């Protein structure tokens, strides 16, 4: 089994966990391979796993991910750093099953006419305008749904629903559902401008197209990474036919993670 270990945090604790894990994996007969891994282990938080996803997204169908958290339990990180021995045994045992979650895919058309397809996001893609209010037409399955005016739009996956989407007032979605969510970022709603004013959850057969009225200064962010700054005239979104696969280990249900992260103990 070929394994890549990803930790981007320069902190001493993370470095020492990284080294300990690599030593134990090698002693257990595993091969460390950053180029063609079967399994990618991230050490850090959900942000670290997002970076690992982007590093390996071209081979997403061939890889299984696993996250070790060095701080709080995350949505993508369910192993504790104290449990490295148990983790290595789990991998050596080879009896590992996996669970997969949906990804969002975007196809971009530039103002000059070229197209670029299949931008993948694990949490979300957001579209904003850097200098002014974003004005765009939102089509759902080819039908003009609304003319949006505001800061931007956020299209999130079920696992990303607890990230940026939640701060925008979007719903938290069970990650086993094959859906995606379109949430507004500070829409203008008054007697002249009108949008739905709520997030909308769409199924895997649905396509959302966002057509810009003015293509300059559009910022396109995938999991908060700015992808490009060329003028964009249109972006289409749907659920990708690719999915992210995790080694299925978690002892905590999705609902208990949501509760632990956002609510905590009830007095
Ligand atoms: P980051 O520092 O990597 O992440 C910002 C925070 O969001 C961290 O606390 C991170 O958890 C948490 N997070 C990431 N994915 C999450 C998920 N699926 N559910 C719940 N919490 C999640 O910042 P970044 O690189 O700028 O952005 C990465 C992601 O963070 C984005 O994709 C976005 O979803 C989220 N984010 C949210 C807001 C917001 O709510 N206003 C702002 C910025 C970013 P860890 O501490 O475990 O890494």
From TrEMBL:
| A GO-annotated cellular component | cytoplasm
Active site as annotated: 46 (proton acceptor)
For this chain's UniProt record, which GO biological process terms are given? NAD+ metabolic process; NADP+ biosynthetic process
Per the entry, which co-factors are needed? a divalent metal cation
Listed A to Z, the keywords are: ATP-binding, Cytoplasm, Kinase, NAD, NADP, Nucleotide-binding, Transferase
InterPro entries in the cross-refs: ATP-NAD_kinase_N (IPR017438), ATP-NAD_kinase_PpnK-typ_C (IPR017437), NAD/diacylglycerol_kinase_sf (IPR016064), NADK (IPR002504)
- Report the locations given in the UniProt record: Cytoplasm
Per UniProt, NAD(+) binds at 46-47, 123-124, 149, 151, 162-167, 186, 225
Q: Which residues form the signal peptide?
A: none
Q: What is its EC number?
A: 2.7.1.23
* Superkingdom of the organism of origin: Bacteria
What the protein does?
Involved in the regulation of the intracellular balance of NAD and NADP, and is a key enzyme in the biosynthesis of NADP. Catalyzes specifically the phosphorylation on 2'-hydroxyl of the adenosine moiety of NAD to yield NADP.
PANTHER family given in the database record: NAD KINASE (PTHR20275:SF0)
Q: What is this protein called?
A: NAD kinase
Which organism's genome codes for this protein? Candidatus Gallilactobacillus intestinavium
Q: Name the lineage.
A: Bacteria, Bacillati, Bacillota, Bacilli, Lactobacillales
């Amino acid at each position: 089994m070929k394994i890549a270990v990803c930790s981007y945090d320069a902190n001493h604790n993370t470095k020492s966990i990284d080294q300990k894990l690599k030593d134990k994996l090698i002693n257990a007969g595993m091969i460390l391979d950053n180029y063609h891994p079967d399994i990618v282990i991230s050490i850090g938080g959900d942000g670290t796993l997002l970076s690992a996803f982007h590093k390996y997204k071209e081979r997403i169908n061939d890889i299984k991910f696993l996250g070790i958290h060095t701080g709080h339990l995350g949505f993508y990180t369910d192993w504790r750093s104290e449990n490295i021995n148990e983790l290595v045994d789990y991998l050596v045992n080879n009896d590992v099953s996996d669970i997969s979650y949906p990804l969002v895919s975007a196809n971009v058309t530039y103002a000059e006419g070229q197209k670029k397809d299949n931008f993948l996001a694990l949490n979300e893609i957001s579209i904003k305008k850097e200098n002014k209010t974003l004005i765009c037409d939102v089509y759902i399955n080819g039908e003009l749904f609304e003319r949006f005016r505001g800061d931007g739009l956020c299209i999130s996956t079920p696992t990303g629903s607890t990230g940026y989407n939640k701060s925008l007032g979007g719903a938290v979605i069970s990650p086993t559902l094959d859906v995606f969510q379109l949430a507004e970022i500070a829409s203008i709603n008054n007697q002249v401008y009108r949008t739905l004013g709520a997030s909308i959850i769409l199924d895997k057969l649905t396509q959302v197209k966002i057509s810009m009225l003015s293509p300059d200064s559009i910022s396109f962010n995938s999991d908060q990474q700015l992808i490009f700054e060329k003028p964009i005239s249109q972006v289409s979104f749907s659920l990708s036919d690719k999915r992210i696969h995790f080694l299925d280990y978690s002892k905590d249900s999705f609902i208990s993670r949501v509760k632990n992260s956002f609510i905590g103990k009830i007095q």
